[in-house]
Amino acid sequence: SLNSARILLYFIQDVLDYIKIQSQSFTLHPTNQSIISTIQFCVNLMSTQAQKKGLDFIVNISNKIYQSPQFVTDHARVKQVILNLLSNAIKFTSQGSVQIRVEKKGHDKLCFSVIDTGLGLHPDHLELIQSRLESGVMRLKINNNSHGCGMGLMISDFLAKKLNPVSNVRMKITSQKDIGSVFSFEIEELQ
């Protein structure tokens, strides 16, 4: 379907970005657009995937964002992070829900959270993921017991830092085994 092709295109973009990150030739391209449109694009692509698995797909956008939807950022990169996080949430959730929540923090910052009721992570696995994100080295070897190579998560963390240049805050991950996970990132308005 057209949605599957678009999702695949974003994952191909991840591979290209990984090469740019390694060669240190990565740049952002900020534009002044509606953040609501950016979020809605991702929701439209991923809600079908959630419905196919019988998951509730919840969108929770703060009223403050609707009051002032224009936001200067690299909207393509914001989409890329949201799509990566939603895709992972849907992949690792077999029942329950996947939610995207977006809140305004101050006048120039947004906080995005992707919340799932999926497998959750054992504390040791969560610690390993966080240490690999901090070092910038994710496992790029796919084996029979793996659900992917972690490249999308690594790139999402890199982009989260780039989209938050003043604070330079990494993606935040909280998780409980058999309960679910929350992946959050903030973006600042870019000049």
As a percent range, the share of strand residues is 15-25%
Q: Uncertain regions: pLDDT < 50 for 5+ in a row?
A: 139-146
What structural category characterises the helix and strand content? Answer: alpha+beta
Strand order of the largest sheet: 2-4-5-7-6
Main β sheet profile = 5 strands, mixed
Q: What is the overall shape?
A: globular
Distance between the termini: 37 Å
Count of helical stretches: 6
Summary of the model, kept short:
With 191 residues, this protein is of the alpha+beta class.
Give structural attributes.
191 residues, alpha+beta, five-stranded mixed beta sheet, two-stranded antiparallel sheet, 7 strands, 24% strand, globular
Q: How is the topology of this model organized?
A:
Layout: H1 2-22, E1 31-34, H2 35-52, E2 56-61, H3 63-67, E3 70-73, H4 75-91, E4 97-105, E5 109-116, H5 123-135, H6 151-162, E6 172-176, E7 180-188
Parallel strand pairs: 2-4
Antiparallel strand pairs: 1-3, 4-5, 5-7, 6-7
Structural summary, described in words:
This protein is α+β, with helices and mostly antiparallel strands. 45% of the residues lie in helices and 24% in strands. The protein has helices at 2-22, 35-52, 63-67, 75-91, 123-135, 151-162, and strands spanning 31-34, 56-61, 70-73, 97-105, 109-116, 172-176, 180-188. Strands 2-4-5-7-6 form a five-stranded mixed beta sheet. A hairpin with a 3-residue loop joins strand 6 and strand 7. Helix 1 (2-22) packs across helix 2 (35-52), helix 2 runs parallel beside helix 4 (75-91) and helix 4 (75-91) packs antiparallel against helix 6. The protein is globular and about 40 Å long. The protein starts with a helix and ends with a strand.
